[in-house]
Amino acid sequence: MTILGICEWLEATAIAVLIRESLYGFSIVVATHILGITLSVGTLLWADLRMLDISMRGYRLSEVYRGLAPWFVSGFGVMILSGAILFAAFATSAYGNLYFRIKMVAIALAGLNALIYHVAGRLPTELFDAARTPTAARIAGLTSIVLWGAVIVAGRMISYTMF
Amino acid sequence: MTPTFASFFTWLETTPVARLIAESLLVTASLSAIHLIGFTLVTGGALVANLRLLGVLLHQRAITEVTGAASRGIAVGLAISVATGLLMFSSRAASVSANSTFQVKMVLLLAAAAFHFILHRAVTQRADVTVPVLRATGALGLALWLGVALAGCAFILFE
């Protein structure tokens, strides 16, 4: 089955039809998606700013990271779930949309960045809690901000170009 | 809407900047994207500041330490969102100013910003504030900013 074939199948599922045909379904899912982004990226940003020594310098990085993690992780959950529903409803046009593709690549790279940081950060705790954040962690923080910024911009562009 | 405001908004739409924005989808979309980035900063700061008062985030740390950093984030985010918001507003000032969802959004925004920079700040800077007062401030702050976010979503979707 081709990707386009999968998209067509997704668009025919009951949930996709419900979102397209109900009066408020689409609006509710979009609003949830935007709130999920502000919850996840809005809180993750503080961990990134701490990594860059821009804000909350008096804190240990691990403290900020662990304190914020439940919030940005649940935000990402909300965002991915609502995003998946929106994708199902408009799968074929999303698949052909340039900004949608940019957004997916940026999310994949942001996930990869987080994974590398998580694996690397777990080994020596100094990487987490040094007085001055090591360069590797700074790069991870900056990469995260840039990529999530790109996700938000591309996401906003989708709504201007797809409907 | 009084005639003075109405004619001002109509004039605003004829300014070169407003016309440039109105005529370019790319400029409008870019402004909208930056507007949302600013708002992400605001919401993130509001979450950190108010969840701390509710005692569910970074509670080992002094309140002023957390809310001070978060408030700077809110201020920077507001500056970005207000600047881009004004530019977008200028391109459709007459119709948008008459839109009831937009009016609700502006009232909530003013209420949330005033609450945060006056009451929330006053509460966090006093040493003799009881826990219930802190919790109530955090809950009200969260509710107001959530209201701004929901009104913003409603404005995008139903205008």
Model description:
The complex is a heterodimer of chains A (163) and B (159). Chain A has 163 residues and is mainly alpha-helical. Chain A is built from 8 helices and no strands. In chain A, helix 2 crosses helix 4 (61-89), helix 3 packs antiparallel against helix 4 and helix 3 (25-51) runs antiparallel to helix 8. Chain A is elongated. The model of chain A has no long low-confidence stretch (mean pLDDT 88). Chain B is mainly alpha-helical and 159 residues long. Chain B has one domain (3-158). In chain B, 86% of the residues lie in helices and 0% in strands. The longest helix of chain B has 29 residues, at 25-53. The radius of gyration of chain B is 18 Å and the shape is elongated. The model of chain B has no long low-confidence stretch (mean pLDDT 91). At the A-B interface, helix 3, helix 4 and helix 8 of A face helix 3, helix 4 and helix 7 of B.
Record keyword descriptors for this entry.
heterodimer, A: about 160 residues, mainly alpha, 8 helices, about 85% helix, about 0% strand, B: about 160 residues, 7 helices
The overall strand count of chain B is 0
Principal-axis shape of chain A equals elongated
Largest sheet of chain B: none
Q: Beta fraction of the residues of chain A?
A: under 5%
What's the alpha carbon Rg of chain B, rounded to whole Å? 18 Å
What does the radius of gyration of chain A come to? 18 Å
Written as H for each helix and E for each strand, in order along the chain, the element string of chain A is: HHHHHHHH
**Distance separating the two termini of chain A:** 26 Å
How much helical structure, as a percent, in the residues of chain A?
A: over 70%
In the predicted model, the low-confidence regions of chain B spanning at least 5 consecutive residues are none
Shape of chain B: elongated
Beta-strand portion of chain B reads under 5%
Total number of β-strand segments of chain A? Answer: 0
Biggest sheet descriptor of chain A: none
Largest interface: A-B, 33 and 38 residues
Low-confidence stretches of chain A: none
Structural class of chain A: mainly alpha
Summarize the amount of helix of chain B as a percent range: over 70%
Oligomer: heterodimer
Number of helices of chain B: 7
